[in-house]
Amino acid sequence: MALNQETIKNLSSLSRLRLPAEREAKILGDLQSILDWVEQLKEVNIDGVEPLVSVTEGTAPMREDVVTDGGLQTELMANAPEQVQGFYVVPKVVE
Fold first, then answer.
1. Dihedral (C-alpha) 16, 18, 21, 25: value to the nearest 10 degrees?
2. How many domains in the chain?
3. Which residue range forms the structural domain that includes residue 40?
4. Is residue 18 a contact partner of residue 8, using CB atoms and an 8 Å limit?
5. pLDDT tens digits for 44-92?
6. Quick check: is 2 in a domain?
7. Fewer CB within 10 Å of terminal CB in the chain, N or C?
8. Domain assignment of residue 62, yes or no
9. Residue 83 belongs to what H/E stretch?
10. What is the pTM assigned to this prediction?
């Protein structure tokens, strides 16, 4: 993919960045070298390589999934500055 000054101006506009004119040429070169490097990666043969989920082969410890009712309503409501029938009372924000 070839980049030009118009592409840089469009990208800076989309990203809401103000680029000084003297830096556009350097950024153009930097972005072009990044895109060239990505093109080189496409040449790597990955046949037979399994996709990775993680770079380490460990697994996370699992816990049993148990459904509970929580049972903490009274403890949670103790922190409420105001409550009605077990619900938090908050200021109205929509009129």
1. -50
2. 1
3. 19-45
4. no
5. 998 998 888 778 877 778 889 888 878 888 888 988 899 999 899 998 8
6. no
7. C
8. no
9. strand 83-84
10. 0.48
The two three-digit tokens of residue 17, written as one number: 């960045």
Residues 6+ apart with CB under 8 A from 83: 77, 89
CA distances from 64 to 58, 61, 67, 71 (A): 19, 10, 10, 18
| DSSP one-letter code for 79 | T
Report yes or no on 25 lying in a domain: yes
Structure tokens given for 83: 């409550």
Convert 13-51 into a string of H (helix), E (strand) and C (coil): HHCCCCCCHHHHHHHHHHHHHHHHHHHHHCCCCCCCCCC
